[in-house]
Amino acid sequence: MQAAFFIIAALIVIGGLAAMLVRKLVHAVLWLMVTLASLAALFLLLGAQFVGFAQILVYVGAVAILIVFAILLTRNSEWAKAGRLASPSWLVGVGIAGLATGCLIASILASSIPPGVPVPPAASVADIGQKLMTEYVLPLEAVGLLLTAAMIGAVIIAMPEDKRG
Amino acid sequence: MTFMAMITCLPHMLLLANPDEWLVRLKQTIVHWLPGPWQFVISSLITIAVLIAVFGALFAVATLIERKGLGRIQNRPGPNRVGPYGVLQPMADAVKMLIKEDVVPRAADRVVHFLAPLVLVAPVMLAFSVIPYGQGLVPINLDAGVLFFFAVGAASELAVFMAGWSGHNKYSLLGAMRAIAQMISYEIPLVLSTVTVVMMVGSLSLVQIVAAQGGYWWGVIPRWNIFAPWGLAGFVVFMIAAIAESNRSPFDLPEGESEIIAGFLTEYSGFKYAVFFMGEYFGMFAISGLAITLFLGGWHAPLPYLGWVPSFLWFFGKLFIFLFVFIWLRGTLPRLRMDQLMNYAWKCLLPLALINIGVAVIWRFTAGWPGPLRWLVCALLIVLAFVWLEKTWMKSRELKPRTYHYAS
Description:
The complex is a heterodimer of chains A (165) and B (408).
Chain A: H1 2-21, H2 25-45, H3 49-73, H4 89-110, H5 125-133, H6 137-158, H7 161-164
Helix pairs in contact in A: 1-2, 2-3
Chain B: H1 3-14, H2 21-33, H3 36-73, H4 89-99, H5 110-127, H6 145-153, H7 155-166, H8 170-201, H9 206-211, E1 216-217, E2 221-222, H10 229-245, H11 257-260, H12 270-295, H13 311-332, H14 338-365, H15 371-392
Antiparallel strand pairs in B: 1-2
Helix pairs in contact in B: 2-3, 3-12, 3-13, 4-12, 5-6, 5-7, 5-12, 7-8, 8-10, 8-14, 10-12, 10-14, 12-13, 14-15
């Protein structure tokens, strides 16, 4: 269990670092996928089946393809220009990253951890389905509506000009 | 358990009332011998080895049947030189593929080029692990088996992209783009037609879906989902989408050799090509297995008095029928055009799948009606709604020459 956690954690960190440091954009996407797939493995290790599968389905199946198509269909963006990886905006980036990390650490330190080995909450896929269809049906519908609107917008953008009216 | 005890219990094992239990008992006996901590590991390894061996053998048999079958359809003998009637052809092919030179283009991205076939095959092998092959013969009984199947299937799109992009060949890239667009479009009707089954059974576990299809109506007609109107429509949608998902003819545009050489496989040769080929066949087996599980009653026998036949034989028998249909379609149907492909997915299969979900709900709430009436009403509802939708909303515009926006 512990060994599995450390292997997965190492994969997540290596994938994340490589995604930032690699020059070719497509390689960066592939490394990002390593991170996201390992994250799914982490969820599965913690017994969260639904979240783990959804993570693979959404990120590896859909988001990766979306990013890849965006890279390939925009001109000349596949190859990074030769030049330094570091730039003046580097400092701003470090600042934002530091701030985000600080906020996370502060909130983790502020939260109280109960003593003893925590018992993972048992949430089966059936339970999640029940909750989504009863208690959280309104947020689910709202998300569905939002996605439908986005899809209609995409169709309108993709329509030939003479039919847009 | 000592060896002698094993010998003495063997006849007992063979006399079990249920022949399906032989395999399960056999594995349990082997595992039982081992020291405690090894039991889980060895048990998993045995399952994995059996899966790889069975489907590897099935792959060899399938290539032979396909070549023979296509030959029959096209009025030629097919492979007939290696062994009697050419039955040893798969071995010859395997040896040829293994010893062929592995050509990697100079401009290729070597690492991605190497990884693509592995990324394609590994998830498909994972998908095999949730399908129930027989009574008690399921490698892992996951609560969310259906979800797992589609989640691992999603990785194959990434593999296709890796294959198409890494060769730095325009035909590879075009083929990959076509394949991904096709797989994404047809995944939606595929999942939506699965949703009806999940709704009716009330479980995402493939084992429970099969269990729900046990028994017979009036003692003759099996309670398979395909014999309900929503199941029939769902099965049709599922099968068409499944053929498209596995990139088989008539949906084999990604490899349309008259247009883009071999699509995303253009820059592959030797063993890597063979691995891709294997991945596509494995994908076909996996999706057929899912179709059998969802709609054709999984390992259940088609007639009540045939229950004595081992259940996994029914599963694989059904799988061979699917294989035959796949080959038959490949031999008889011409390839679609890209715009026909997309229109078909979005304007025909998607509405049908959505109507089907609605009718499944009606079926659920008319459980008290007499059987034939309920069947007829629901079937009519699907047909009428679909015909009306296609006639009024989706009326295709008059045919005119295609206009090209970016090519002239």
